[in-house]
Design goal:
Blueprint (H helix, E strand, L loop, with lengths): L4 E4 L2 E4 L39 H20 L10 H19 L5
Antiparallel strand pairs: 1-2
Helix pairs in contact: 1-2
């Protein structure tokens, strides 16, 4: 259900009377861009590898090895005349093939 409300210093004031079943629940709020004083920075969180269980760290190491193998198999001289975007596509194909080989599947 969508209803109109006015934001007033941390509180939402509904434009019509609404009786709610619960005192606390999630809502989705749409705020006009021009009302935001400073944009929310889009930054990825950073993690300490020691925070993860050993099996997760092992999986990350294996996937890094697969990525390195794909880079080793990728021969830039063959596609030297191609654009950077095409080189990235070929590198992605090689990464997929290396990942499938690591899983015991045919590329």
């Amino acid at each position: 259900m969508q209803i109109e409300a006015i934001y007033d210093q941390g509180r939402l004031e509904f434009q019509s009377t609404v009786t709610l079943k619960h005192q606390r629940f999630r809502v989705r709020v749409e705020i006009p861009d021009q009302e935001i004083a400073s944009p929310i920075p889009l930054a990825l969180p950073t993690y300490d590898p020691a925070d993860f269980p050993p099996e997760i760290r092992d999986r990350v190491r294996r996937m890094a090895a697969v990525a390195e193998e794909a880079q080793r198999l990728f021969v830039p001289e063959i596609v030297s005349a191609e654009s950077e975007e095409e080189r990235q596509r070929w590198a992605a194909v090689e990464l997929r093939h290396a990942s499938r080989r690591e899983q015991g599947r045919l590329p």
